Amino acid sequence: MRALTRRQFLAGTSLAATSVAVGGWARPGHAQGGPVKIGLVLPYTGVYAVLGESITQAMELVFARENWTVAGRKIEMIKEDDEMKPPVGIRKTEKLIDSDKVDILTGPVHSGILMGMRDKVHSSKTILIVSNAGADAISRDRCSKWIFRASFSNWQPNAPMGPWVAKNVAKEVFIAAPNYQAGKDQLGAFKETFVPAGGKIIGEDYPKLGETDYAPYLTKIRQSGAKAVYAFFSGTDAVNFVKQYDQFGLKQHVRLTGAGFLVEPDVLPAQGNAALGVVSGHFYTPLLDNAVNQRFVKEFKEKFGGKMPDGFACQGYDTAETIVRALKAVNGNTQDKDKLVAVIEKTEFESPRGHFRFDPKTHNVIQPFIYVREVKEVAGGLNNVVIDKIASVADPGTGCTLPA
Amino acid sequence: MPVPILADVFAQTLNGLSYGVLLFLLSVGLTLIFGMLDVVNLAHGSFYMLGAYAGLALIAATGNFWLALIAAPIVVGGLGMLVERTCLRPLYRRPPLDQILLTFGFIYLFEDVVKWIWGGRIRSIPSPALFSGSVTLFGATIPSYRVFVIVFGLTVAAALWALIERTRLGSIIRAGVFDAEMTAGLGINVHRVFTGVFGFGAALAALSGVIAGPIQSAYPAMGTEILVRTLIVVVVGGLGSLKGSLAGSLIIGQAETFGKAWLPDTAMLIIYVVMALVVLLRPQGLFGRPLK
């Protein structure tokens, strides 16, 4: 390969240097009365791209309802693609905080990115409303006065499922999840309650995030003699795992259960009949019959070409709704950060998932319900039908002492 | 004794074989393009992705998997020839970095076009009705579609071997891989062969994409995800070698499958160890020509 000439090198680097310099120079002043800048650090490419898309769409739906103006200030969303890579996510976070000077930061999807951005957010006193990533630590020993979570902690959808599966499905279970923090957290929460309820973990596997061929694991599951599988997969992983599970003829013999992400509406159409009968625990299903949800489902489908909102969309809705209500409560004044935090902490409203409020102990949402859902054929295709529910699920918050 | 260990090994061998065969269909095109045009075609994974989506569209339109399996590679192969003729050819005299940048750019272009037409959501491709169940062979249960993939892939490998080793066209391609300038000196229109090989490679990638569809579904990032694995296969097998591509695919397929099953924490490491060993002990790859 021919090396770069000195001239090419100089041309390239000086171009890069110029763009950095101009970027800094052209930065507009930050004035009260200007737009409220909302930063989004989300994946728009890769295995969880559809999650980022759902969250963003629901936020746009809420802001559009307010005509993109709250308490006299325009709402400006600044979207950054974290590509599901922690180094990229952290760089984008720094960009949004340091050069865009966002008023409120939202995101990310990846628990690893959340853990990576935590210290920057905390030390810069930036208000972050987590719109997906469930890393338990953010509600525990790594909690922060400046961080709220409108989605879930990884513990929440799984812990109630342990006793439920032991009682209603099987006592010998094989567990599987992608090999990263959320996978370990989610299965950890399940084990924590499943084993004391008399359950036995027959085997466990952690395929890499973005795995496309689950055959080796499925063969192991078949040979393990497990009566059921409890799995956490999401996005494209969920599609491939559930489809291949069915192709291997496992579904007839080994019941598939898991965290709700496994069979969310973002993946159900692609899974098709392979998902029929899968039982999962989650804080949301588009079939909930409260008035807010019915309106949300209708408007979301109208605005986004018939797309069914999923739990991720509900999280985006609640993130944006929290922002709108908090901004109204402080009359658009985003300068007094302590005041804004106090207001967000007290924000309560009717969300599509039920009565939404933060736990003042951890700044994490208290799930109104964790629904046990089964995939069934209903009017309009496959969907998650509620077969049982567990009320008011709050993260234990071990080790979190706010204000920290 | 729970389950005979042999049945377990046999089941995982079949899993590895079906995965390896997919890698072969993908890597053989890349290695031929590499060997002949001296171009590292980073957009090769994109042709795989385009194949899956073309298959998806054709199945939606006709309801026939087999038709899609034949037509999608033709469409994508044509696109490949167009790319080579209009964009890549003017860059042959430029430094390799320019060609790499061009094919890198095509990754983003194709991904965005696909998102624009089909959206970012993962799309499922149904298995053909004939192979929708699972079969049990010697105590090992495997989806019948994967059995078809293995048989089909090995048949394609045999057909390719016959084409390259036993036909006049094949000897031109082999000559081109060995020394393109000398081949041109013999009065052969090397440019036309280049276009043909590039299109043929793209068509094979698309074929792999359609075949992979019922197993892995179709989504925009599928091409970039498989690309690294394909490059590893080419390095292990040796540049420009059909035999190398087959051997490399099967070795990587088995190494990864058994790694996942038996040493789950180091499964990814294993394929890199295999690659590192090959590069150390035989830098030209298993079946590559010795480096000058």
Describe the structure.
The complex is a heterodimer of chains A (404) and B (292). With 404 residues, chain A is of the alpha/beta class. Chain A has 13 helices and 15 strands. Helix content of chain A is 39%, strand content 21%. In chain A, the strands form three sheets. Chain A has a seven-stranded mixed beta sheet, with helices on both faces. In chain A, strands 2-3-1-4-5-6 form a six-stranded mixed beta sheet, with helices on both faces. In chain A, strands 12-13 form a two-stranded antiparallel sheet. In chain A, helix 2 packs parallel to helix 12, helix 3 runs parallel beside helix 4 and helix 6 packs across helix 7. Chain B has 292 residues and is an all-alpha fold. Chain B has one domain. In chain B, a hairpin with a 2-residue loop joins strand 1 and strand 2. In chain B, helix 1 crosses helix 9, helix 2 packs antiparallel against helix 3 and helix 9 crosses helix 10. At the A-B interface, helix 2, helix 8, helix 9 and helix 10 of A face helix 1, helix 4, strand 2, helix 8 and helix 9 of B.
